[in-house]
Design a protein that fits this description.
CATH class: Alpha Beta
CATH topology: Glutaredoxin
Number of strands: 5
Oligomer: single chain
Low-confidence stretches: none
Radius of gyration: 13 Å
Structural class: alpha/beta
Helix content: 25-40%
Strand content: 15-25%
Length: about 110
């Protein structure tokens, strides 16, 4: 079942609705097609989308096609992973993070929401 859930595509246009107005914690992966480390963590991000379905939202922002959001949050290096709770950035990771470190941060946010 978790295999069917994919990360939400987040754009400059839907960022407010998908991230800032979300009633669950959100992990946003800022990435680009040409970024090697981004491709390395993509399967991990996809797995997390399935594993946290209903408890947290996992989304991806292609920085080449959505520069406004990336600029607004000072994303200068990718992959950058921002963790949002109640519309506010509460944590971040830069670089190809491990699944364990991402899941640990998500677990903490989900526990605060429960």
């Amino acid at each position: 079942m978790s295999q069917d859930v994919q990360p939400v595509t987040i754009t400059d246009q839907n960022f407010q609705e998908e991230v800032l107005n979300s009633d669950v914690p959100v992990l946003v992966d800022f990435w680009a097609t040409w970024c090697g480390p981004c491709r390395i963590i993509a399967p991990v991000v996809a797995e997390l989308a399935g594993e946290y379905a209903g408890r947290a939202k996992i989304g991806k922002v292609d920085v080449d096609h959505n520069p406004v959001v990336a600029q607004n949050y000072g994303v200068r290096s990718i992959p950058t992973l921002l963790f949002f709770k109640d519309g506010v950035v509460v944590d971040q990771l830069i670089g190809a993070a491990s699944k364990r470190s991402l899941a640990s941060k998500l677990d903490s946010l989900v526990a605060q929401t429960a």
